[in-house]
Amino acid sequence: MRGFTRLRRVGLPYLLLLPALLLELLVHLVPMVIGIVMSFKELTQLHIAHWGAAPWKALGNYRVTVDFDAPVGATLLHSFVVTCAFSLLTVGLCWLLGTAAAIFLQENFRGRGLLRAVFLTPYALPVYAAVITWAFLFQRDNGLVNHVLHDQLQLTDDRPFWLLGDNSFLALLVVSVWKSWPFAFLVVMAALQSIPKDLYEAAALDGAGIVRQIRRITLPSLRPINQVLLLVLFLWSFNDFNTPYVLFGKAAPEAADLLSIHIYQSSFVTWNFGTGSAMSVLLLLFLLVVTAGYLLATSRGRKSDG
């Protein structure tokens, strides 16, 4: 009886985790393994009905993908550069806006609760509804953006196209930052609650101004949270598919051709699932390397600080 009780106590946590593990296996691991297998096959629309019997191509899809002198590799490299620039700008702007807003709202003043609710509104809205709204705002002839910039403020000589050409990158960046920065604001605002007020009072008695308090107390105290926050924002923005797909449709402009939409086009538009799967595997490997390197660098930084 005692052995049964001990077995139940030890095995109960694993039994409770079993449904989540099975769901993880079905939703993530099984498709991932299938995608890796597909990357080694010549899987086009001619073989999609019987993809298991598609010809084995070994590393052929990967060689085509990384051949940057060929059209497929050249467009993938361009998409990679665009995605890196988009992700870095998104992460930097989201962190800057979120941190500044969180620090500003630490002070007690009338209307602080209302401002907090307003700042969190973009994060609470459904992604598709928010991006579709922005797509209407960026319309050339009837959009509110051109109405304000051209008709009201007269900052442009003509109504620019925001969803076509080079301006599409700026439009994509604005939408991504608008819907993502409240998450940074929420995380930093919660982390600021753990900083003792005595530190700021002592710094003020020593003659430290607001800027010096932020630089010497706030930012060092937020370093552990910021390390995780920056990584999460980077992974979200680098893998973002919903925003460009809803904003531009299946064919994103060249200036806003993110890797996620590029892989989608290679797989579901041109029906070359083998090449698209190879691109997905390379993307996974790149993100794993970046994540591992970032975690290693941050852990060494914490040890040196300690």
TrEMBL record:
<keyword id="KW-0812">Transmembrane</keyword>
<feature type="transmembrane region" description="Helical">
    <location>
        <begin position="221"/>
        <end position="238"/>
    </location>
</feature>
<comment type="similarity">
    <text>Belongs to the binding-protein-dependent transport system permease family.</text>
</comment>
<dbReference type="GO" id="GO:0005886">
    <property type="term" value="C:plasma membrane"/>
</dbReference>
<feature type="transmembrane region" description="Helical">
    <location>
        <begin position="169"/>
        <end position="192"/>
    </location>
</feature>
<protein>
    <submittedName>
        <fullName>ABC transporter permease</fullName>
    </submittedName>
</protein>
<keyword id="KW-0813">Transport</keyword>
<feature type="transmembrane region" description="Helical">
    <location>
        <begin position="117"/>
        <end position="137"/>
    </location>
</feature>
<feature type="transmembrane region" description="Helical">
    <location>
        <begin position="80"/>
        <end position="105"/>
    </location>
</feature>
<keyword id="KW-1133">Transmembrane helix</keyword>
<keyword id="KW-1003">Cell membrane</keyword>
<feature type="transmembrane region" description="Helical">
    <location>
        <begin position="277"/>
        <end position="297"/>
    </location>
</feature>
<dbReference type="Pfam" id="PF00528">
    <property type="entry name" value="BPD_transp_1"/>
</dbReference>
<dbReference type="InterPro" id="IPR035906">
    <property type="entry name" value="MetI-like_sf"/>
</dbReference>
<dbReference type="InterPro" id="IPR051393">
    <property type="entry name" value="ABC_transporter_permease"/>
</dbReference>
<dbReference type="GO" id="GO:0055085">
    <property type="term" value="P:transmembrane transport"/>
</dbReference>
<feature type="transmembrane region" description="Helical">
    <location>
        <begin position="12"/>
        <end position="37"/>
    </location>
</feature>
<dbReference type="InterPro" id="IPR000515">
    <property type="entry name" value="MetI-like"/>
</dbReference>
<feature type="domain" description="ABC transmembrane type-1">
    <location>
        <begin position="80"/>
        <end position="294"/>
    </location>
</feature>
<keyword id="KW-0472">Membrane</keyword>
